[in-house]
Amino acid sequence: MERSRENEIRKRLADIAGDEPGPAEQALLGRLLRSYLDKAPGGIDRLAELLRGGDPAALREHAHALKGSASNIGADGLAAVFAEIEHAARDGGVPDPDVTLGRVAAEQALVFPVLERLAAG
Fold first, then answer.
1. In which region does residue 22 sit, left (phi positive, over 0), alpha (psi from -120 to 50) or beta (all else)?
2. How far apart are alpha carbons 38 and 93 in whole angstroms?
3. Alpha-helical runs (H) found in 54-96
4. Using one digit for the tens of pLDDT, what is the confidence trace for 21-45?
5. pTM of whole model > 0.85?
6. Domains of the chain with CATH codes
């Protein structure tokens, strides 16, 4: 499972910097991945607050931003979870916080080690 996540991420990074990035591109990709790794936990914490607060409009907006960030680095599985949250909120619903956050955590457990390894070069 982790291997498919790595393939998705590597494909996206190749879209950004080419198949054989030079040192400058590798440094850029490392910064991009480290930035995501630094910011994602706070974004997930905010997602938890919004899921528990029951505000569909704010939840939709935040899930949309998280989806975009995950998509930008090729974390397609994580982006798909955020997309489902966004769609539910767009329809006025708020998904079950515990189930939803469990899904996010499971996907993070697959993606974050890959990101950390790739960010380290």
1. beta
2. 29
3. 56-72, 76-90
4. 889 989 999 999 999 999 999 999 9
5. yes
6. 2-120 (1.20.120.160)
